[in-house]
Every structure is written in structure tokens, then in C-alpha cells.
Amino acid sequence: DILSNKIAAGEVVERPASVVKELVENSLDAGSTSIEVAIERGGLAGIRVSDNGHGMGADDAMLSLERYATSKLLTDADLFSIRTLGFRGEALPSMASVSRFELVSREQDAPSGVRIVVEGGRILDVTETGAAPGTVISVKNLFFNVPARRKFLKTENTEMGHIADILLSVSLGFPDVQFRLLHNGRVLRHLAGGDAFVRAVDVLGKEVENHLFPVEHRGAGIRVSGWVASPDISRSTTQRIYLYVNGRHVRDRSVYKALFEGYKGRMMTGRYPVAILFLDVDPDRVDVNVHPTKHEVRFADGRAVWAAVRDGVALALTGEDN
Ligand code: ADP
Ligand code: MG
Hints:
Bound molecules: adenosine-5'-diphosphate, magnesium ion
Strand order of the largest sheet: 5-4-3-6-2-1-7-8
Distance between the termini: 62 Å
Number of strands: 15
Helix content: 25-40%
Largest sheet: 8 strands, mixed
Radius of gyration: 20 Å
Shape: elongated
């Protein structure tokens, strides 16, 4: 019902950037190769995500707005074998309950698409429509019916900064996919799909290009890859550490510590490395359902992960000595 969706929205949808993250993850789960994120006024006025993924038929589109109807957590076993970015089935119903929401979707080989208009959780209109294959979701006037939440939103520029950060973070895990970010009709970023190193430099900045050492290491069934930057371009925050577990952008203190350990003796105290690390772990050995925002994970073999990361990083940095 509308009330429980509104409550869930508080957990999943904190601010415009969380809407962008959930929508882009859905587009990626739908196999899209091109995703456009168009923002109006820092997302306070509008957020529109368009993709060329597999789309939804009318029935599936209706179902996608019902909480947990699309949950992939059917059995306990599923908890440990999730391969999609989404799995809880609550993002769309949540955001639709706290905004003016519109979904247009067409399956790749369908003759026409469907358009659903929702306002504050109430479905106002469902129509057949012409549309390009794929999905376009538009979220306007976020929190228009939750004034207490709206008050917590920051300035347009601050919210836009969060949106760009989240989009860039997610995009690192999917270098084959093309992304465009627009603000008030102007193109802010265009990330061409293709090479993982090009994407890394797009995200970290041209100035780090010649300071990156490739990581490639396997240990105890865990693959660690990515790039670590030489210590001389370290930072005073952990903000430039990008960590991915099976393509999912996450934060994990113990992995960060293993990363620092790999830098041991090279890094000034109070400084943090610039790094992009991809961990490929058997999906059965990692729990991603720790928190609704899915930013945290839990490993079945934390120590093995720790050792693999530390060794992979240390090995990559010995390249620096030569
Ligand atoms: P979850 O991602 O956890 O399954 P969501 O509420 O984010 O839940 O999305 C609900 C469902 O709607 C998805 O499982 C998917 O089937 C469908 N869906 C959402 N966005 C898209 C999209 N861009 N393209 C195709 N299907 C989508
Ligand atoms: Mg989702």
C-alpha cells in the first residue's frame, strides 16, 4: 500500500542521487548498452533515465510498481547467489510513492509500448503508446508529498555533485556501456563504451593516467583486478577508492584496510590511495542483502579476501620500484 511504500522510500530513496543509482542499476540489469541520465535542477525538479535495454511488457510494468512483486529473494538459497544489481523489488514502488512518476517501456520486438503515470503512489493512467525499444523512467518533484524530507535536500549543485559521483562510480563497473549525463539540457559527461582503462581515466581524471599500476591477482578462488595509483598522488580522504564486488559498487572497511596494507611503508600517514579494485568472488560466497541501499556486502571468507587484496596491491606496486 501507499503508506508502506512511503516508509520504505525513506530507506531506499534518500536524495536524487539514490534515485539515479536505482534507475541506472535497473537499466544495467535490463542489459542496456546505452544509458542517458537527464537531470533538471540537481534532480529536485526532475530525473529521467532512458535506456535501450530489454524493456517491459504492460503486465511486467504494472508488476514492477508493486512492492516485492519482483523480488528475487524467493528462497534462502537465493540470498547467496544474486547475479543482478537489483533484487529487492522495492526501488520503483518506493520512488513512485514520493514523486510524480512516469514509466514508458517497450520490449525490443513489441509493436508498441506502455505508459504508466503515478503520483504519490497512486496510479493515474495506463496507456498503450508508441516508444523506442527500452525504458524511460521520469521522477519529478521528488518528496513533493514528504515536506520533512524535502527540507533535508541540499542545493542543486550539491545534489548534482552526488549524482555525478554515483553515476561515475556505477559506470566503472560497466565499461562496455555508454553513459551520458545531462544537467538542465546541457551534456556534462559522455562516457563512451569500450575500454576499461579509458573508463578508469575518465572517472579518475586525465592527471592520474600515467600514475596507475595494473592489479591482476588470483588467490583462494578470488580474482582481484583494477588499478592502484602511485602513492605520490594519494589523497587525504578515502573518496577516490572505488571498490566493486562482482561489478557492484560497494564500500567495505576491511577491504580498504587490506588495500592500505598492500601500500604498507609507501604511504604517508593520514593519506589514502587512489585505487579502483574489482573483486570477482563466487556469488555463493558473498551476501549482498545486508542493507536496502546494497552498499555493503558480507563475505563468507573475509580473511581470504583480505589476503588476496593485500597481495594483489603489493604485487602491483612492486612494478613501481622497477
Ligand atoms: P529490483 O531491481 O530490486 O528488482 P526495482 O523496483 O528496482 O526492483 O525494479 C522492479 C522490476 O522492474 C525489476 O526487477 C525489473 O524486472 C523491472 N525493471 C525496472 N526497471 C527496468 C528497466 N529499466 N528495464 C527493464 N525492466 C526494468
Ligand atoms: Mg532495482
